[in-house]
Every structure is written in structure tokens, then in C-alpha cells.
Amino acid sequence: MRPVFVQFRCAPGQTYKVADAVYDREVVSELYSTSGEYDLLAKVYIPEDEDVGRFLAEKLFDIEGISRTLTTMTFKAF
């Protein structure tokens, strides 16, 4: 499993609705409300045999109320 972090910017007044929808998809291991440019931060474990972009697009990015996302890939440091 490969961990990636996804930040979500939500349409005004939609953050709680988006957070509920993200949890309902059962694909994130952690979800946080954040300050700054983005409203939510999720940690997602992607199966090794899955394409990251396709996995995220099919599992999360079609949620109504998301206006922008930022995905951060992780790599083994040592």
C-alpha cells in the first residue's frame, strides 16, 4: 500500500457535507479539518497495483461540493 495525502477545497458551506461523503466512501484512513487554502486533509492508502490518479478520481473526486484538490505523493525516504 502506498500512502498519499489529498487536500480538498470545498465550496462555501459544503465542508461538512464533503467530509461525510468522504467517510462514506470508506477509502481514507484519516481525515482532518484544516486551516489555510484547503478545508480537509485525507490520508489515503492506494493498493500497489492501482493507478493513483484513476483510483482517486473514481473513489473520491466526484463528490459534490469539492472545488479543488491537491494530491501529495509519498516516497520511501530511506
From TrEMBL:
The lineage of its organism: Bacteria, Pseudomonadati, Pseudomonadota, Alphaproteobacteria, Rhodobacterales. Residues 6-76 form the Transcription regulator AsnC/Lrp ligand binding domain. It comes from Paracoccus tegillarcae. This is AsnC family transcriptional regulator. InterPro entries: Dimeric_a/b-barrel, Tscrpt_reg_AsnC/Lrp_C.
